[in-house]
Write a structure and sequence with these properties.
Oligomer: single chain
Distance between the termini: 11 Å
Number of domains: 1
Structural class: alpha+beta
CATH superfamily: RlpA-like domain
CATH architecture: Beta Barrel
CATH class: Mainly Beta
Strand order of the largest sheet: 3-16-13-15-14-17
Strand content: 25-35%
Low-confidence stretches: 1-38
Number of strands: 17
Shape: globular
Order of helices and strands: HEHHHEEEEEEEHEHEEHHHEEEEEHE
CATH topology: Barwin-like endoglucanases
Radius of gyration: 21 Å
Helix content: 10-25%
């Protein structure tokens, strides 16, 4: 993004930079240093394999075509071309004898992400299932808040075309825009208390924090019914990885900063729990949803087929092929080994920690098992984007 160097522009940037917003964050992971190579380079089609049933690919394609066709594409590849290509792929995928690798090579061009040292970094995220209540009672004293009405969203492109890709959140204080309340102010100081913003209550602050990290979840209520909550916005504050923070202060050792290990540490060190969680100033607001989980593209995510990427680099809705490894874990989350992942995926989501080229978060599904697998996922691999042959290759318009 190019910025003007006028005094007014620089002053505005200095005042507002801390309020920049990015999507709901997935679990924290170590981030490799980007390399100076291009985002993507044209390559010959790799030997495509797919380790998931074809019906899951068809389901993911159906959800994208039906729910987001008009939101697909980029300057290099209009939405109509993308939709036609995905419809054609869907038709091929439902044919049990169709040679999908040959179909892909004939109808798509392949580009490989080269933006990180050591290959693309793959992590995982999931939809947790937690106990909850609609009203505060007993041990259920930790609220989930809906988006406050004093949370102001400003699209800077409305004021200056140079900042068209930047949105900030804040609040008006004494006639001036200020950063919105931090996690410490909200959960530690109770600045939102008494405003009737609570939509549900949880019985564990650590579970609540990791629900914020995932951005959506299912609450099992006392009467046996379920309430699904989805991402409703953030306070726009910077996202900080508490796993990385615990590594840096020596609380965890390298290789231990998985989501299950971080949760276990916080629960066994209650005297440090809040202080550690407050290090991440970003706060997530929720709303009740009828179906889900729904990604940033606006369609329901498909287990193993939906991934989160940096939408400032790669168009949402892009078809991709990934090669990496996923963890094999036991019922406690202990790693037992690795298994290969080779599959087609759709870029249907984003995340605060998913930034820069060569960064992918794989959606593992809902529930405890998905959480154990997603929490242990951290592996390098290969990321290929597939562009319809009727379009210019991905990245050619950058």
């Amino acid at each position: 993004m190019r910025l003007r160097r006028s005094p007014a522009a620089l002053a505005l940037l200095a005042a507002l930079l801390s309020c920049r917003t990015v999507p709901a964050p997935p679990p924290a992971r170590p981030t490799p240093v980007p390399t100076p190579t291009p985002d993507v380079v044209s390559v010959a089609p790799p030997k495509v394999h797919d380790d998931l049933p074809r019906e899951t690919l068809v389901a993911a394609l159906d959800r994208e075509i039906e729910g987001a066709a008009t939101r697909l594409g980029s300057a290099a590849c209009p939405s109509g071309d993308v939709e036609s290509a995905l419809v054609g792929l869907r038709q091929a995928a439902v044919e049990p004898d169709a040679d999908l690798p040959a179909y892909l090579a004939e109808n798509f061009t392949f580009t490989r992400s080269t933006g990180r040292a050591g290959g693309t970094l793959f992590t995982g995220y999931y939809e947790p299932i937690l106990s909850g209540r609609r009203q505060r009672e007993g041990a259920f004293i930790y609220p989930l808040y809906e988006r406050p009405d004093d949370l102001v969203e400003i699209r800077l492109g409305d004021f200056d075309a140079d900042w068209a890709d930047m949105t900030i959140f804040g609040r008006v204080s004494r006639g001036k825009l200020a950063p919105y309340h931090s996690r410490r102010a909200i959960d530690g100081e109770g600045v939102l208390d008494g405003r009737a913003l609570e939509i549900a209550w949880l019985d564990d602050p650590v579970s609540r924090y990791f629900l914020h990290v995932q951005g959506s979840g299912i609450l099992e209520l006392e009467d046996g019914s379920r309430m699904r909550v989805g991402y409703g916005g953030s306070n726009g504050r910077p996202y900080t990885s508490i796993g990385r923070s615990l590594l840096e202060d020596g609380s965890l050792v390298p290789g231990q900063a998985t989501a299950p290990a971080i949760q276990a540490y916080l629960r066994t060190h209650p005297e440090r729990r809040d202080e550690v969680m407050f290090r991440n100033e970003r706060y997530i607001f929720f709303h009740e949803v009828a179906d889900g989980p729904v990604g940033r593209l606006g369609v329901r995510l498909t287990d193993g087929r939906s991934v989160a990427i940096d939408a400032s680099l790669y168009p949402l809705g892009s078809l991709a092929y990934i090669e990496t490894e996923a963890p094999l874990v036991d019922s406690t989350g202990k790693a037992l080994g690795q298994q290969p992942i080779r599959r087609l995926v759709l870029a249907q989501d984003t995340g605060a920690a998913i930034t820069g080229p060569g960064r992918v978060d794989v959606f593992f599904g809902s529930g405890e098992r998905a959480g154990l697998e997603a929490g242990a996922m951290s592996a390098r691999g290969e990321l290929y984007f597939l562009t319809p042959r009727s379009c210019r290759r991905l990245g050619s318009n950058r």
